[in-house]
């Protein structure tokens, strides 16, 4: 009982409401909405460690979202001081027939194949599947010296690491092995954090499949710890910088050696339309360059043009109004320099992979930003990329007084907390309330006369 004095145990059970439930996210009342049965989390402190776990990892499906079962599980953890699945819900040992049928240990290759197949069955996007394949599978790349030859990728995936270390079976992947593999990740802290999350998800999958002992994934999760990521301020284009970007589109050409003779700057018209689209809708570059023409609509009653910003992460279609000049630029967009066009898409012919067309446009933006030649306050060149147009939409909307929840909906974030994490410093209503509270405290402390009304203006970052 000595550890209870050193580490107070405080666990609480909370329901987190999600669509189709109509309750607020952390409203602890029963679910509202047809077919709603929201997940339950156990949150608190246990043995000096923070606990924030879903009951779905420790209870069978029929009990995972039952509030009483969740309370009983939290009480069991408080009594034992251990985060574990209750004994009555532990997977039953295989029968003698099952053991005979498949008594060989599971290989890492088989587990990775099953994990990737499960990800495809659950409807993960192609981009997500590609990221997982980079982390787990053996990848190949084209030899730059021979276009027909394929060579092993330099990325250290799980299967390639196992090949190098002579690891064959899943049971050999202990904490030290994973740490050794993690030390080979030559990526920044944010990518390391996301990659570690995928690895932890892989171990939870294997444990639920019965290939690893109970609590194996929990031990790996705690042992790996949390990767610290330095939070940086969101970069965006201030109004004068954005005007400079638009001005540069009138000088931009995909074929400068040809267009300087006939002044056909078709590439500039196209990249200007794409830039305006991303700036005024917050679309990611992939969603913008693959935008279908039928997703731009006009309401004759209000004379408002809108873009349906259908977001795959939330699954809900949202209509974002766009200025009339942006709608005109989209409707009159010329064909590409090669004359390619498509009746379905604005910026894409529909041929090839979306990833390819995104890479092409990213190279075009590299040329455009070099023409713009923006500078930081210290005089060094400003690092620019297309995603800053999405950030510009969010920041400028918040500075104009738009509610955080509304911006989060248009951006397609799965939770308003994601929006808060990146854009909270620019929420005008929050800063205005903070200003008024501080000024009221000045009056009470005698710093300024009581009742004196002073308005503290909210300035843009970097403004003089």
Helix and strand topology:
Blueprint: H1 2-6, E1 10-15, E2 40-46, E3 49-54, H2 67-80, H3 96-101, H4 108-121, H5 126-136, E4 140-143, E5 146-152, H6 158-165, H7 175-182, H8 189-208, H9 216-224, H10 239-249, H11 256-262, H12 266-281, H13 285-289, E6 296-299, E7 304-308, E8 319-322, H14 324-331, H15 354-372, H16 387-399, H17 404-411, H18 416-423, H19 428-444
Antiparallel strand pairs: 1-2, 2-3, 4-5, 6-7, 7-8
Compute the average pLDDT. Answer: 80
Outline type: globular
CATH superfamily descriptor of the largest domain: Intergrase catalytic core
Class from secondary-structure proportions:
mainly alpha
Overall description:
- The protein has helices at residues 2-6, 67-80, 96-101, 108-121, 126-136, 158-165, 175-182, 189-208, 216-224, 239-249, 256-262, 266-281, 285-289, 324-331, 354-372, 387-399, 404-411, 416-423, 428-444, and strands spanning 10-15, 40-46, 49-54, 140-143, 146-152, 296-299, 304-308, 319-322.
- The protein is mainly alpha-helical.
- The protein has 4 domains: 2-89, no CATH class; 104-224, DNA polymerase, domain 1 (Orthogonal Bundle); 245-425, Intergrase catalytic core (hpI Integrase, Chain A, Orthogonal Bundle); 429-464, no CATH class.
- The strands form 3 sheets. It has a 3-stranded antiparallel sheet with strand order 1-2-3, with helices on one face. It has a 3-stranded antiparallel sheet with strand order 6-7-8. Strands 4-5 form a two-stranded antiparallel sheet.
- Helix 4 runs antiparallel to helix 5, helix 10 (239-249) packs across helix 15 (354-372) and helix 17 (404-411) packs across helix 18.
- The protein is globular.
